Input
Amino acid sequence: MMKKNEPLTGSHPLLPNLDQEIIDEMLLKIGAGSVEELFSDIPSDIRLKRGLRLPEGQSESVVRRDLQSRLASNKTPPNSLCFLGGGVWPHYIPAAVESVVSRQEFYTSYTPYQPEISQGMLQALFEYQSLMCDLLGMEACNSSMYDWASAAGEAARMASKVTGRRRFLLCGDIGPTRLEVIRAYVSPMDLELESLPFDVRSGATDFSALSSRITSDVAGVYVENPNYFGVLEEGLLDLSARLHEKGGLLVVGVDPLSLSIVKPPGKYGADIVVGEGQPLGIPMNYGGPHLGIFAVKDLRLARSMPGRLIGMTSEKDSEQKAFSMVLQTREQHIRREGATSNICTNQSLMAVAASCYLAMLGKTGLRRLGEVIISNSHYAAKRLSRVDGVASPLFKGPFFKEFAVGYEGTRAVSVYRKLASKGVLGGYPIDRGFRLGREAGLFCVTEVHTHADIERLAVALGEAVMR
Output
């Protein structure tokens, strides 16, 4: 303990481990020569070669004002029109959803290990699972994962484990960031990933190449429907049949709101369904936290599924309902190396938001929402087609919510930046890895956009592509 008026010697009174003598002692104990050595696995070319330039501490009022000034430079909805998609989409969130998830019984709850004091959270998660199974046409859904990308990575790993095979096929029109996460997830397994070509005219997967690709050593095929370009895939029922003949699993990634008007994956033979639950009452949040969807068609697959399953039963001596975790197959602290996944938490609060959102809309409301979204997005694509130097939509296939546009003689990055300078966020540049042969951007139009918003976008786009 410091004595009164004892001078500081370069260390902080509340952070004793900043003292050099203590640092030296800790390094000696662990056998390291320096603190820098602890970060030796980070490539030197991306490491900072100097100390952080941190200013001296300021008063709370000064710091608050500085932060507010910095935050004011961000271009965020609703102050800026947002037509960005690609995995995080602008949607309206009813006030009731925010009210429910703001209740302390939910937002302070972590893991319901003790069911006797966690019945509220357990019931909410059970309702989420039930609603998602109805929406997806599946038999079992876990009580959420991090996001779409991590769920897709887990699905590829699971398909390989269940089938014992080491080849996995990926459609070439999936989200690039999701592709990178899938690669990262399967890299320790020595799982061979192969990409299927897509038709640059329709924007959908070219399934004609599948006949020779689907063999008895293929663990599964991953396809997104709608795909990254918003295009709806066709021929999935035939794909499922051919894949199942060879003993493989069909993994489908979805935007759950598309299922308001599109046949659910369970109806065309999907074995595993993953997706992003962010459209279901969850803010964009600068990219997270969001909600990873993971569901299976066959209950025999449930034990191989990562994450947790919540079940409903009744008390021994009465008919009173009771809820508990019935499967925790991913838990390292229980199964150690036998766990199905190393995921260390779920997104329970986000799952509560999704269940509240779906319960509020109901079947009729969800259908109506889907109709509005597809109407608005098709109206926008048609309006942008009248802009000189723009090909809209770029692909001929049917689409939901998102569509790509092509630019003549203008770089997509330049268009994106010019739109942002006018307070319009849209036209996310499409990665050149897709090899479209031209510059293109991705737009997203949902129920939050009015015809006036779309007109403003069209005018701004016309000025952005003007030579």
